Amino acid sequence: MASRSYARLRLRLALTAAGLGTAVALSSSASATNGMAMAGYGARAGAMGGAGMAYDAGNSNVMNNPAAFGFREPGTVLGLGLTVLGPEVTAAHEASGAEARSEGDAYPSPSLSLIRTSPGGLTYGAAFLAQGGMGTEYGGETFLSRSGEPVRSEVSFGRLMLPLAYRVNDRVNVAVQLDYLVGNMDLQMDMGGAQVRGLMSGVGGSLSASPGLGAALDGFSAIDYARVDFSNGSDLTGEAQGGGLAGKIGLTLRLTPELTVGAAYHSESRMGDWSTGANGAELAFQGDMRGSTRSVALQGEVAVEDFEWPATYGVGIAYEPGDRLTLAADVKRIAWSEVLETLSLRFKASDSEANNLGPGRDFRGEEVDLALRQEWADQTVVSLGAQLRATAALTLRAGVNLADNPIPDEYLNPLFPAIIEDHYTAGLGYAFTERSRIGLAVTYAPEVEATNPRTGVTSRHSQLNGRANYVYRF
């Protein structure tokens, strides 16, 4: 009877975690660190420069290397976490001296996990967290706005992860994992007339329209701006949403009692197009037509095409010369070039009568394809970290995370300034009891700047981020 009651309790906890975790995945947003990826996952690995492939980094093993669960003693671990990313982003137009500061300076991302290890060495459970994203917010009075309306971006990826790890023997752990990704995007973007004409000519991307809208665009002798606008203003979801699957495999091998190596592969996601739904987006143009200012504003649906999370793979080592000191190093590769060659949007005007602007201007069902070249480079990330058990209750941690800016200057957009390079990390863990402990981490990323030579706009980006995790073992 007792074992059945305990099983029912575990099931109720898992179902509760699933419900809360879905909300977590939907509400998570983040500003870029290693490209769109966070520099570390969990307070333990986050304080050690993100290194976490070859030792037990806590429930965040689901993102680092699920095979590391094989190091655990039998039991169940409940984890609660909060990461707050604090980017400082500005954009400056060098020729005019105009400057805009992003008001998006705090992005909270909660996490929830419940992981059990059986006496036979099998580990399973569920975890939910934000994987990463990008976000900026500029006012309508800044030089980045041509319409007088705010311009902003918010992209988030959240994951529900179901790990299955097995301790083969005292030396080898293996794991497979199924992930479900949820993606959300808001975008309010103005493009000046020169950029619009350039896109129509294939400069920096492409812009093409179905016959009716194409004729309307050709009718402008000069274009002031074009605006793409889809945003629901919600802190929980974005106007455009998508979902799909990915997977992970992992391995750890203890070479000596002191030295362990680990390796993990995270597959590219399969999410398909993200959609706003009917009438969830607006596409607007303004310009000069036969000597007077004319504007077109259409309601419809935007599909964000083939926006996926990239494959990531890497190796790590952990050296533990005693029970007080751990030194860790990871090297991983993020395949951005496979998923961020372009940002492609397809707008389709709805059948609403509001899109019928009069004779010869019935735009219902008309389409526009917009592709902005990104050409992100693959990124190699080196993570180095150390932890020292100062007392029976207190553990101190520090590390560095080293990477290059993945975005070519000529395609840098101030709405997506994912140009951060190096990070410096520190943190601590404190055990209240054998069952209850907390982990804290802070990350500082020095300012990086890059200038788009085509637009003359310089983006500057630095970060100060914090993490807190609470763990209860039962």
Automatic annotation (TrEMBL):
- Entry keyword Transmembrane: yes
Asked if the record carries the keyword Signal, the reply is yes
Output the superkingdom of the source species: Bacteria
Matching entries from InterPro entries are given as: OMPP1/FadL/TodX
Name the Gene3D superfamilies for this protein: Outer membrane protein transport protein (OMPP1/FadL/TodX) (2.40.160.60)
Q: What is its main location?
A: membrane
> Which interval of the chain is the signal sequence?
1-32
Q: How does it sit in the membrane?
A: Multi-pass membrane protein
Localization terms from the record: Cell outer membrane
Protein keywords: Cell outer membrane, Membrane, Signal, Transmembrane, Transmembrane beta strand
SUPFAM superfamilies in the cross-refs: Porins (SSF56935)
Which PANTHER family does the record cross-reference, listed alphabetically?
OUTER MEMBRANE PROTEIN NMB0088-RELATED
The family annotation for this protein states: Belongs to the OmpP1/FadL family.
Q: What is this protein called?
A: Membrane protein involved in aromatic hydrocarbon degradation
Give the species this sequence originates from. Answer: Halorhodospira neutriphila
